[in-house]
Amino acid sequence: MPNKNDPPPPAEADPFAFSFVRMAPRPARPRESGLTIVADRGMGIGRATDLIESAGDHIDFFKFGMGTYRLMRPEFVRRKVALLKDAGISVFFAGDITEAAFMQCVSRRFYAEVKAFGADAVEVSSAQVAMSLDDKCRLIGMAGEAGLKVVAEAGQKGAEDWTKSVSYIARQIEAYQKAGAWKVLVQADGISEDVEKSRWDVILNIAARFDIKDLIFQAKDGAAQKWYIGTFGNGVNLDVDDHQVIELELARRGIRGRHIFGLVGSLENN
After folding, report:
1. What's the domain of life for this entry (predicted)?
2. Between vectors from CA 47 to CA 14 and to CA 72, what angle results, nearest 5°?
3. What is the pLDDT of residue 249?
């Protein structure tokens, strides 16, 4: 993975069909911003192969979601990781089993195993267990020592109350970054999921304090994706479901979304 101080990768040459029709450019992979993270709920090799064939060019990270990998045979996990990495897609494991490992005092062994499976990163979260900020920061350091990038979760799954204090959210993010987190994932629960009205004010206050390139936003519905891209541009990092990759990339490229990136056409020029 590139260092954050390295110059951004050049825009890719257009390898796609109908290349004479202009669309918004995107940096080539690997990239540090404009990331599309796909959340996996246990898809098989066949579905993963289909996803790579149809949308792999537009996926930066594949997240083994929830605790799915705990129910998969080791040979299957290795095959799936190898398939993804051969396609240029980085891999990270979601935090649910991280939390179980923490409760059972086997965190170092867990991170070593994640690294041995060939993953690039791991999530540190507290969705299922109560965990102090200090404990989460220690886990970030522990995972880093194992050679893994860390995606640290801000917010609380299943709890809307966490959105009531932007100051505390900022404290979380600052602590994670100081501990060595590569990116901070901002939960959708309480923001755009399980709420009567989306709390975009919270996101704007977070974005006012931190570089959005260092953040990943969960956005599992089209309206949320449209808001993020319309507000922050196509360089925003989004965590989406596998069936949303193409539609999201169309929005990033200015195809779905009216003149978001200034590609205004005229019949007189056709």
Report:
1. Bacteria
2. 125
3. 94
Q: Would you say the C-alpha torsion 100, 105, 106, 107 has a positive or negative sign?
A: positive
Distance CA 157, CA 188 (A): 8
Which residues, in sequence order, are CB contacts of 96 under 8 Å at separation 6+? 66, 67, 125, 127, 128
Burial class of 94 by CB neighbour count within 10 A (0 to 12, 13 to 18, 19+): buried
- C-alpha distances in Å from residue 96, one per residue of 118, 165, 258: 19, 25, 39
> Using CA atoms, how far apart are residues 149 and 203, in angstroms rounded to an integer?
24
Q: What was the pLDDT predicted at 156?
A: 72
How far is 25 from 102, CA to CA, in rounded Å? Answer: 42
Beta partners for residue 185, in sequence order: 153, 216
Q: Write down all domains in the chain, each with its CATH number in brackets.
A: 36-269 (3.20.20.70)
Residue 21: predicted pLDDT: 87
Residue 151: strand, helix, or coil: strand
| DSSP per-residue string spanning 19-87 | TTS-----BPSS-SSS-EEEEESS--HHHHHHHHHHHGGG-SEEEE-TTGGGGS-HHHHHHHHHHHHHT
- Per-residue pLDDT of 140-194, as tens digits, reads 999 999 999 999 999 776 655 788 889 999 999 999 999 999 999 998 888 988 8
Q: Which two tokens stand for residue 166?
A: 């932007």
Q: What angle do CA 18, 22, 25 make, to 5 degrees?
A: 110
Residue 12, number of CB atoms within 10 A of its CB: 14
Does residue 179 sit in helix, strand or coil?
A: helix
Across the strands, what pairs with 36? Answer: 238
Low-confidence ranges of the chain (pLDDT < 50): 259-270
